[in-house]
Amino acid sequence: MSSILSAYAAQLQHRAQSGWRSIVVFVPYIWLFVFFLAPFLIVLKISLAESLIASPPFSPLFEWTEEGVLTLQLVFDNYSYLWEDDLYVKTYLNSIKISTISTMLCLILGYPIAYAIVRSSPTTKNILLMMIILPFWTSFLLRVYAWMGLLADQGTINSFLVWLGVIDAPIRMMYSEFAVYVGIVYTYVPFMILPLYANMEKLDITLHEAAADLGARPVTTFLTITLPLTSPGILAGSLLVFIPATGEFVIPDLLGGGNVLMIGRVLYNEFNSNHDWPVAAAVAIVLLFVLVIPMMIYQHVQSRESEG
Amino acid sequence: MGKKRSTFLFSVLCFGMAFLYVPMIFLIIYSFNYSKIVAVWGGWSLRWYAELFRSQEIWDALVLSLKIALMNATFATLLGTLAGLALVRFGRFKGRTLFTGMITAPLVMPEVITGLSLLLLFITLGDLIGWPGERGITTITIAHITFSMAYVAVIIQSRLAGMAQDLEEAAMDLGGKPFRVLVDITLPLLAPGMVSGWLLSFTLSLDDLVIASFVSGPGANTLPMLIYSRVRLGLKPDINALATIIIVVVAVGVIAAGYLMLRQQKQRERDMQMAATDTVKVTA
Fold it and tell me: Fold for domain A77-307?
């Protein structure tokens, strides 16, 4: 199939040498180059500058000396500052810990849900899928806000438990790591369910039946057949949760407050409250560095998927 | 054995759906609460809806957000469709790997990084060429187009990859010029994908807080920025009212779209069946 495709593509390429074809490629190419790639180079540049109390608050990277020689000045102070300050190292590690655990929780919850959806009748399947997608289209911010109402000291869950008589005084749930886990799993679980569903939908369900016919126990069937076959879905879903969750800002800010250290929030505050641009840029570059391997794996999975 | 498994799956499914929907249901219930303190029930009332409609600030933010979302969706669909076409139909071209990378990366890039890098770009450009002089609606729209077009490109890409090429090949064999084939055959086949891309871009733009906060300037507050500044320090009943309106509008939209799609699908199946029976009749 793919050989036919590439032969066809080659044919197309021959027939249309230039003109409209280059427009189709170049317009989005230039756009992404200017507004996506170039900004990273600027961030990299500023992360290597000295912070100044001025506007813009950083030293120029290239400078013309009086003799008319262009000098390049790189300052690695911002990076060594990140490394020496305990807070940053701890915050990176804590972000990775929180997003790893959240990813596993999403997988534990999302896997059986995706499986149940695949196994249901066509009509039910459509309704369930719609129910998974619906929260997607409503505001992310408002869904996090909804949990503020549930988890607050005077919130719904505490009021209910006090009313039941299970507890005497409200339990503190807001502004804790627990609240952040709830928020991340809540907002990201559809990102886990949908790739898993897409993967399982393609799976040959008769393989299970064959295994069952041959007398395999359910656990054996699951471990030896289902799990390996669904690993592409697991990988795609996990990366779709892990990568954005690591840099998450809204959830730790609204539900975690100052008690939960996450790098997205530190970066945002470094920039907006402290106005230390070079340090903020260095924080961003290090975060990108941490995430570049999972991102490359994701891209690999994506491209394999689209090539069939 | 099978029964035990079904019970397990069913209970997880119920738990999952409850988990997804209970918070929203409580959000809606409390929007009808008379009390100023969200969590203390003070009887049913539409008080906060009235307050919401009187707030000029919220209207301004909504109008700004809708303007940005409309422009974003339109441009992102155009650019994303071009990008999707280039990726699937053009085989290998120079810089393809970089191009693929720039399409996939925005999908998973943490928002704080995208936001920070775009802001620094706008500031650098402002210093160098004097544009953009003031940050606001234009810079937010450009930022939104950049990540939305990636989503559109992925949708178009998957549609094109799953689409049989016989129609295009037939048109080519009949001597159609590639450009005409693109306009007359490929684009109409892509229309449903472009519609979903447009809708997704529209929603992504309306939903974005972090990137807009970075690239916006003084005076330009989008709806999420306004909501965020209000709820940061606690629960606000008028925000519950706003949330309820948004959830209801989205739910009606999604259910209507789902219903239409289902009906179309059934219609197509019926047509196919009729065609099949007709063929049987003719051959018999």
Answer: MetI-like fold (1.10.3720)
Asked whether the beta carbons of residue A112 and residue B9 sit closer than 8 angstroms, the reply is yes
CB within 8 Å: A186 and B20? yes
User: Would you write out chain B's pLDDT as a tens digit for each of its 284 residues?
Assistant: 467 778 888 999 999 999 999 999 999 999 999 988 777 788 899 999 999 999 999 999 999 999 999 999 999 999 999 999 988 877 777 788 889 888 888 888 899 999 999 999 998 898 888 888 888 999 999 999 999 999 999 999 888 887 767 778 888 888 877 778 888 888 888 898 999 999 999 999 999 999 999 999 888 899 999 999 999 878 888 999 999 999 999 899 888 988 888 788 788 888 878 877 777 666 65
- Parse chain A into domains and list their residue ranges: 77-307
Cβ neighbours of B185 in A, within 8 Å: none
Amino acid at A276: D
Q: Which of A38, A132, A264 sits opposite B110 (nearest CB)?
A: A264
- Alpha-carbon distance of A138 to B250, in angstroms, equals 6
Among residues A71, A248, A126, which one has the least CA distance to residue B254?
A: A126
Closest CA to A94 of A215, A210, A233, A259: A259
Interacting residues of B174 by C-beta distance below 8 A, sequence separation 6+: none
- From B75, which residue of chain A is nearest by alpha-carbon distance? A28
Q: What are phi and psi of A63, to 5 degrees?
A: -135, 140
Q: Where are the beta strands (DSSP E) in chain A?
A: 62-64, 70-72
Amino acid identity of B118?
L
In whole angstroms, how far apart are CA A158 and each of A171, A183, A186, A195?
7, 17, 19, 35
d(CA A304, CA A308) in angstroms, rounded, equals: 6
Q: ipTM of the predicted structure?
A: 0.87
Please write the tens of the pLDDT for every residue from B5-14: 788 889 999 9
Distances (CA, A) of A210 to A229, B121, B138: 15, 58, 59
Cβ–Cβ below 8 Å for B247 and A247: no
CB distance B180 to A65 below 8 Å: no
For residue range A199-243, list pLDDT tens digits in order: 898 877 667 767 777 877 878 888 888 888 899 999 999 999 999
Residue A213 and residue A166 in contact, taking contact as beta carbons nearer than 8 Å: no
Domains belonging to chain B, first-starting first, are: 21-54 (no CATH), 60-237 (1.10.3720.10)
Contact: A117, B13; criterion CB under 8 Å: yes
